[in-house]
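Sequence only, no structure available. Ideas?
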Amino acid sequence: MRTPVAALLLACVCVLNAPAQRVTGEIVGTVRDPSDSVVPNARVTITHEATNAVRSVGTDAMGFYRAPTLEIGPYSIEASAEGFKTVVRRGVELRVNEVLRVDFRLEVGAVTEQLTVEAAAPVVATETGEVSHIVGSREVVNLPLNGRVFIQLGMINPGVNQKAYGASGGFVANGLPSPYINVQMDSGDIMDFADQNGQIGVLANFAPSVDSIAEFTMQTSSYSAQYGKQAGANVNIITKSGTNEIHGTAFEFFRNEKLDARNFFSAARPRRLLNQYGGTLGGPIVRDKLFYFFSFEGTRKRVGLVNTQTVPTPAMRRGDFSALLPGTVVRDPDTRTPFPGNVIPAAKIEALAVEVLEKAYPLPNFAGTPNFREAPVQVLRQDQYLPKIDWQVSPGNRISTRYIINNLLDYIPWAIGGPGWCGYGYPGCSITNDTRDQNLMVNVTSTISPTTVAATHFMYMRRNENPVPI
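Reply:
I predicted one. Tokens follow.
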């Protein structure tokens, strides 16, 4: 049976004084003169150094300026006013979910005169009291990750620990499990509203390739009420974008069983073969205007999972349970009297039960209890594609479109579960999952005036599942 799950989310027009959920970045500050008086009506121009995207804002009567919903990355900021020299600060790094204060002190002079600060002191975020940790792309790629699941890096936050960890990304933050943690990617919530049983939304089904992540942050305390919904933590993920320079990566991770120890319950080392490979490519389509980014990651896994069970012996299949005496007595379900010798007469044995035993349960292969040992192989094939287009329509308007498609084919052997009708963890009870996840995100940012910015977000999420028991 194919079960589609779709979610459409649309959040429109959020003005400067009532910000929406912040998953990009924001720069604020005050412009002053040499006497420490504020400078109203000063012009502050913020330029993204990688794409040359420009945002211009003005200071209010208190000399204060604010530039919300900025893309993360390096910026140069220019402040100018009539009767003062222009001051430029370069190399200001804006991180995901950050409100960065950059103040200016203008010197008296002609506006055509320019004072450039190339190596400024580190800028400290002082605008919020939230407790959070930002993980950049270098950390995401270089730190060791079991299975390349990036959310494992959330464990470096105080108050966050592992919970039944696996590809689902399950963890506990401030004592609350994953269903109480909100996850956003590129401004859109990606919680799986159909299944929050200890998982974290779509990440329960797939996680974005670590090479496609620019930054992510996990807020664990004192974050703004604008995030709402969940009390455990708030995770914000930003995927990479193209720039004016062409950049790309290629990778492959390989592992096999050659250095593994033999499992105590296995006569030989179980099969293990893991290949994770892919790459990224980003650059300009039209310089300073239109940019592309593409990421691909493929996973091929074959892992032998050692398991032991007790299965019916040949005598038990014929109805002879005499070996269980005197501890276990088999009784006639109609009369409640014991069967003579603990042997069920052939007339009392259901033909369908015999067929199930023959097809779903193997014969014992080991003496004693448990009497069956095997290392069935889990076979997984996963391919994930992520294209992204960023369009600087005009200096005040930007459109970003990102799409993810994740195809997963997973043969799950009896060692790690199966259909409930024949018992979880029993030989013969296997299942194949054929799943496709899709996620489309469109962000439109428009500067209405020097003090007002509108942000529109559109998200489409869909999952197709086709479980095939075998």
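The chain has four domains: 23-117, 131-240, 243-307+365-470, 312-360.
Hope that gets you unstuck.
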